[in-house]
Amino acid sequence: MPEVRIHYIRPPDREQLLVQRLVYEDARVVVSLLESAPMAHPITIAGELATEPGAALLWFTFPGEWHDVGRFHTLDGGFTGLYADILEPVVPVGPREWRAVDLFLDIWLDARGGPPRLLDEDELEEALERGWVDAATGAAARREAERLMRLTRAGAWPPPIVYEWTLERARRALTAEGTENGII
To answer: What's the pTM?
Structure first.
């Protein structure tokens, strides 16, 4: 089964290599599955569990865009919401391998509904103050977050593909050895 390799950079100097299973790809998006999230603690947002160590995460990477989107789940596979990382557009470093630089801001769309939540503004502010992110890049991150928040409120974002590819569909596609989407 093909893999994608993501060099996930968190300024100033943290890098994590994420190896995920390729689920689907076309010119607009790469969908990959991280079957077991390597995190030390559960992530809670507004007091609710968003995901936990060992849970599956389905990622949507959009070449040329200033964000990606993750479908978050609990250990039992329950869908909790969509999490968009604001990041620099990914830079290819090899076949099915890229570098992604996190820009701290995130957007959360809770599966139970409610308005979108902009997260971690304080982290971007700290990164700007410490010089980890330059002013132009910080401004671009804010513009992207504002754009996605505006589009979400208007019902025009996220793109349909993040709802079409559920965890169950991704797992079925992988067990069918990619026959559903022709990646093998």
So the answer is: 0.93
